[in-house]
Amino acid sequence: MSFKVKLVLVILLINIFVVSLTLYFRSKQIEISIKERMIFRTQIIADIIVYSIDDETKLDRLIIGEYTEFIIKEPEIQYIAFFNKKNQLIEVAGEYNKKEFIFQTDNIFRITDNVYDVYKEIKGKDNKKIGSIIIGFPMQSLKDIIRKNLIIGIFLWAGATVLIIILNYFSLSYFLKPIKYLYESTKQIAKKNFSNKVPILSKDELGIISKQFNIMSEELATFYNKLKNKVKEATSGLEKANKKLREMDKKKSEFVAIVAHDLRTPITSIMGFADTLTDKEFKLTIQEKEEYLNIIRYESHRLSRLIADFLDISKIEDNRMGLDIKKKNVSELIRKALNSINTKAKGVTLSLESEENFREVYLDADRITQVIQNLIGNALKYSPQNSVIKVLLKQNPSEIRINVIDHGPGIPDEYKEKIFEKFYRGDDDISKKERGSGLGLAIAKSIIEMHGGRIWVEDATPSGSCFIITLPVKD
Ligand code: ADP
Predict the structure, then answer these.
(1) Is the pLDDT confidence value at 234 over 90?
(2) Is 411 touching ligand 1 by the criterion CB < 6 Å?
(3) DSSP secondary structure letter of residue 420
(4) Beta bridge partners of 470
(5) Of the candidates 91, 86, 146, which has an alpha carbon nearest to the alpha carbon of residue 116?
(6) Which ligand 1 atom minimizes the distance to the CA of 424?
(7) Would the CB of 78 count as within 6 Å of ligand 1?
(8) CATH number at residue 77
(9) Which atom of ligand 1 is nearest to the CA of 443?
(10) Which of 133, 151, 172 is where one domain is finished?
(11) Residue 251 DSSP code
(12) 441 ligand 1 Cβ < 6 A
């Protein structure tokens, strides 16, 4: 049942109640007024009788005779009875079937014989009772009047009710229109459609509510959109993080696979030669034994370097590589690093060119030494026999610069950045023969960057490569 129908029904019920009450009181009022009229008429008759008698002390049958005829002709009078002052009946005119008269006015609401008796004393000039009359009024006419009234009332009421229902229905339709629009709008909002506006039809309370509803739905829309965007952002952030995690996971697996593979080569070689050496069945010469032991030593060193590199790179990846920073003379540091490298096998000469009074800078001496050794090691690997590897030291107010120059094959432009990536190894014969971890330059780059410096490679003149390191000078 819709709100409108309910409202119409309630109004109808109230209407029925009020109209019924009105009708009831109206009929009561009619009764009372009729009763008063009857009493009044009786009084007038009593008064007329008094005025026309000579002897005020007694009621005379003759006098009465003069009146009875025309009184009885009066409308709505059934009978009239006259009594003397001792209440003895003198005369009765009209139709009656009473055995006994009661000397008081009937209660109009408790009539049994359909006749309403009105009793009146007739009083003389000195206000003394000289007799009395009882007039019987037929109740049928009274009832008829009341019934007629009631019927008219009911018809009027029915007509009014129909009119009220029709008027109510249309006026409610008109007044409830804003509520209908509000209802439709809430349904739209539930469907997340915020664009629907409630039309403002009036300036009354409903108009104000509609206006505020529109403001609220606008705010709701902005809030909802903001929330949606935030969820979107959060989701895409999560997706990105997830993707990164997956990439990292993949890289980790790749790392483990490469490490396992790289470690296997020297270990297999060491195990093979160790087995041969210890196997009694092989009758090895002293030279052979020495050769095998050299291979085992070489592979062990390689293995140790590989493990050191793997540990370093995993520390770098996990941000666990701490630096032990101290003020050091770089020129001194590099001189020592160069001295620790054995170049005799290849007949290569190492030369250091440094400016005088080289400044002291803050750095981790062990890590910088590691970088220099790695660069010189690579240069040595790729240098032709009997060539020169030159280390140049320069300084300016803000940084120091270390150049490591060799006369090897050099590095093609397209690989100048790639060689600093993890596990990158050149495809040339030397790289294949002298298998490193492919981590040396990646570690060097991380260490230099941790110092706030830079490392890159350029072509050397006339040939070869020139690795350049810069380190910032800070107090
Ligand atoms: P590794 O030496 O263990 O292979 P690095 O990271 O030290 O790994 O070097 C990566 C690659 O860079 C080498 O495989 C090589 O191809 C190239 N490279 C490094 N130093 C030189 C150099 N001085 N001359 C030519 N190529 C070099």
Answers:
(1) yes
(2) yes
(3) G
(4) 401, 454
(5) 146
(6) 10
(7) no
(8) 3.30.450
(9) 6
(10) 172
(11) H
(12) yes
**Parallel, antiparallel or unpaired: strands 388-395 and 326-329:** unpaired
**Residue numbers of the domain that contains 73:** 3-172
Task: Compute the distance from residue 305 Cα to the ligand 1 centre, in Å.
Answer: 15
Q: What is the pLDDT of residue 28?
A: 84
pLDDT given at position 109:
66
316 lines ligand 1 (CB under 6 A): no
Question: What is the C-alpha separation between 378 and 355, in angstroms, rounded?
Answer: 25
What are 78-98's pLDDT values in tens digits?
899 999 888 888 888 888 887
Dist CA 52 CA 67 (whole Å):
10
The response to whether residue 217 sits with its C-beta less than 6 Å from ligand 1 reads no
Can you give the CATH number for the domain in which 367 is found?
Answer: 3.30.565.10
CB atoms within 10 A of CB 228: 11
What is the number of structural domains in the chain?
2
Q: Which two tokens mark 261?
A: 């593979």
Mutate to test the pocket of ligand 1, among 431, 432, 434, 469 (most ligand atoms within 8 A of CB): 431
Phi/psi region, residue 347 (left: phi>0; alpha: psi -120 to 50; beta: rest), is left
Q: Are 312 and 374 in contact (CB under 8 A)?
A: no
Q: Is residue 309 in some structural domain?
A: no
Cβ 382 under 6 angstroms from ligand 1: yes
Instruction: Name 453's Cβ contacts closer than 8 Å, sequence gap at least 6.
Output: 399, 469, 470, 471, 472
DSSP string, 341-407: S--GGGTPEEEEEE-SSPPEEEE-HHHHHHHHHHHHHHHHHHSPTT-EEEEEEEE-SSEEEEEEE--
Task: DSSP for 143-182, please give it.
Answer: HHHHHHHHHHHHHHHHHHHHHHHHHHHHHHHHHTHHHHHH
Let me know if residue 192 belongs to a domain. Answer: no
Out of 372, 441, 455, 456, give the residue to mutate to test ligand 1, the one with the largest number of ligand atoms within 8 Å of its CB.
441
Residue from 306, 375, 419 whose mutation best tests the ligand 1 pocket (most atoms within 8 A of CB): 419
Nearest CA to ligand 1 atom 7: 440
Which of 141, 172, 203 is at the close of a domain?
Answer: 172
Q: What pTM value is reported for the model?
A: 0.55
* 427 located within any domain: yes
